[in-house]
Specification:
Elements lengths: L6 H11 L14 H11 L4 H11 L5 E4 L4 H9 L4 H6 L1 H10 L1 E2 L7 E4 L5 E6 L16 E4 L2 E5 L10 E6 L13
Parallel strand pairs: 1-7
Antiparallel strand pairs: 1-2, 3-4, 4-5, 5-6, 6-7
Length: about 180
């Protein structure tokens, strides 16, 4: 007896259906707010979920700093006597985190930029930044934002609305991937 769908067809159907994973999207949105909204649906950590309410309130273009994982955030909160559960229950704390990691500009450039919390951050973007020892040369989608190296995930879109900067740790023990709040 022949199966109803060939094995490749079953695999394709599972991928396209998302297998029940909310937020699984086979495209990268070109809008920073949409990127964060989809991220909040699909990521197990809390970065994007904490950003959403603030992004809804801010008018105009934005550049968002998105770090990876919750380990750095967990360590940061513990240093303040808080837990991730405390963070998730406190909208004001989440808003402070978001304001510290959102710039009200569509794309960062070399110079000084302020996040929504009013703090100034020195920014150096390609070609004004030098790679660290052992790193390959950077391309035009990279910036040094304060202490972070970050890549603009929306750089390749001609119609991008805003930017998403994914931070890169400076080493294996570096868990700081966001600005303190």
């Amino acid at each position: 007896m022949r199966p109803l769908l060939p094995l490749g067809g079953v695999a394709l159907a599972l991928v396209l259906s998302g297998c029940g994973e909310p937020g699984l999207d086979l495209r990268t949105p070109s809008d920073a707010r949409e990127y964060v909204r989809l991220c909040a649906l699909g990521r197990p950590d809390i970065y994007c979920k904490a950003m959403l309410p603030t992004l809804r309130e801010v008018q105009g273009p934005v550049s968002v700093i998105l770090g990876g994982g919750t380990e750095g955030l967990t360590r940061y909160l513990a240093g303040r006597g808080l837990t991730v559960a405390d963070f998730q229950r406190d909208p004001a704390l989440q808003a402070a985190f978001a304001r510290a990691n959102i710039f009200p500009v569509g794309r960062l450039s070399t110079g000084t930029h302020r996040t929504l919390d009013g703090k100034a951050h020195a920014v150096r973007c390609w070609p004004d930044m030098e790679p660290r020892a052992g790193e390959p040369p950077y391309s035009e989608d990279w910036c040094q934002i304060g202490e972070f190296r970050a890549i603009n995930r929306l750089h390749h879109f001609k119609d991008a609305v805003g930017s998403i900067y994914s931070t890169v740790p400076s080493g294996p023990d570096d868990f700081s991937s966001f600005f303190p709040f």
